[in-house]
Description:
The complex is a heterodimer.
Chain A: E1 3-6, E2 10-13, E3 18-22, H1 36-43, E4 52-58, E5 66-72, E6 78-81
Antiparallel strand pairs in A: 1-2, 3-4, 4-5, 5-6
Chain B: H1 8-16, E1 37-40, H2 44-57, E2 62-65, E3 81-82, H3 89-103, H4 105-109, E4 120-124, H5 127-142, E5 148-150, H6 152-158, E6 174-178, E7 182-183, H7 186-199, E8 203-205, E9 210-216, E10 219-225, E11 228-231, E12 235-237, H8 243-249, E13 257-268, E14 276-279, E15 284-288, E16 293-300, H9 312-325, E17 334-344, E18 351-354, E19 360-364, H10 374-387, H11 401-404, H12 411-414
Parallel strand pairs in B: 1-2, 1-12, 2-8, 4-14, 12-19
Antiparallel strand pairs in B: 3-7, 4-6, 5-6, 9-10, 10-11, 13-16, 13-17, 14-15, 15-16, 18-19
Helix pairs in contact in B: 2-7, 2-10, 3-10
The structure holds flavin-adenine dinucleotide (FAD) and zinc ion.
Amino acid sequence: MLLINCPWCGPRDESEFGYGGEADIARPANPDALTDEEWADYLFMRKNPRGLHREQWVHEHGCRRWFVLERDTVTYEITDAT
Amino acid sequence: MTRQKYSIFSLLRNAVSRNENWQQAWRSPAPRKKYDALIVGGGGHGLATAYYLAKEHGMRNVAVLEKGWIGGGNTGRNTTIVRSNYLWTEAALLYEKSLKLWEGLSRDLNYNVMFSQRGVYNLGHSLQDMRDIERRVGANRLDGIDAEVVTPEQIKAAIPMINTSPRVRYPILGASLQRRGGVARHDAVAWGFARAADALGVDIIQQCEVTGIYRDHGRVTGVETRRGRIEADRVGVVVAGHASVLAGMAGLRLPLESHPLQAYVSEPLKPVLDTVVMSGAVHGYISQSDKGELVIGAGIDAYNGYGQRGSFHTIEHAMQAIIELFPAFSRVRMLRQWGGIVDVSPDACPIIGKTPVQGLYFNCGWGTGGFKATPGSGWAFAHTIARDEPHDLNAPFSLERFTTGALIDEHGAAAVAH
Ligand SMILES: Cc1cc2nc3c(=O)[nH]c(=O)nc-3n(C[C@H](O)[C@H](O)[C@H](O)COP(=O)(O)OP(=O)(O)OC[C@H]3O[C@@H](n4cnc5c(N)ncnc54)[C@H](O)[C@@H]3O)c2cc1C
Ligand SMILES: [Zn+2]
């Protein structure tokens, strides 16, 4: 079980949170101009790194706010919360 | 290479010589400089690919490169459920090809993979579950796959320990049953394919992690490994949870996320469950091994992880599901727990095919349910590599489907159900 530091509520058990996957994926500003390849990349392709990963979490059973963590996907150590 | 044939006579002969004269099952050669084809990943899928390359396509100058030991990945960590009752025709035909290969596999490999067709029940707990089950069973029958809908009374008669009381939170309203489904011995699958591939001339090279993929003008030319550079103009990558890492070495992006998936076994019990029971609604599944242990699993841990371990609350969740179905198991003690790394794709279907790099092929995205596909996956991937084009069975499972939008949405049939 991860101990996750919610930026608003402090350290809480992982079971209070929902996982939102890779962070910093911005919806394309001009969807009409996108090729199929660009759509596929935005919708489906993921970095999925072995190592540091910036990812989204939501404090589902707490303040219900979203935030971004950096976590090592091998050791599971949380290295940065913003 | 002449291989000692395993039979009742070889068993007896070796028993009287105190089992000291068994021939080694495969060689451990040093890697050569160049091969006709390289298979990266010595799990069941990679070993099966090499075997069918040699057997069906006459490609014998082939090496399997494995970073650790063969079968040490998901092949040796999974809960071994085999079935083919997927909803969509594309998926059903691929898994059914595999099931047909399972049915003759021990004989084909001359290795007992202990494939046991003890049946697989997928339970329904709500009206919607039952509608989905009826739809899937109907689809399976149209695809020529054995499937039936069974009632709570039939379930209770076949599985006396299960709780079919209507007075529980998630009552059992029925199930789909695939009688040809079952389980197999995971290690034996890796060892059997390894031994049979080796006998056809394939080099199985363990402790040989691939760290780079060489390309020249859009063509693959070889790989860098911990044991030096190896050349080949065909490279098939089958590394399950590490697919994105290998893709990165060739400058490719994949629609995959790697998650921990855990499994559990109990202390051994006398025979109590002679079939496989799965439930998507309470989120758990269970069978009993030939040694008597209950083999239990559930869903993935939510986060991305390459750590081969997951969180405790996921374990608790799986146990709650099993106790809901089998209250009597609440006093059984669990012995061991472990995790694998599964490569989850957006439509819960695999990717088996060519890549934008010529001569480089990927087979990945099997997620939580690829053990059942081991022979069929290797068979189709070998075809793809040998002919440089997919077989009809795996053509729909291309990487391009994420661009064209032709996804094969198997979440309903595959999500928890391995
Ligand atoms: C707990 C659990 C339960 C499961 N239950 C079921 C089930 O009941 N039924 C079912 O059908 N499926 C199940 N699965 C899924 C199934 O195990 C996988 O889909 C399947 O085994 C993948 O097969 P593989 O042979 O490709 O993978 P693996 O056996 O993982 O083989 C991949 C190999 O690649 C190697 N590798 C990785 N990186 C490199 C590198 N850089 N260089 C060289 N080698 C490398 C790894 O060491 C590994 O040996 C389960 C999985 C888990 C984890
Ligand atoms: Zn909070």
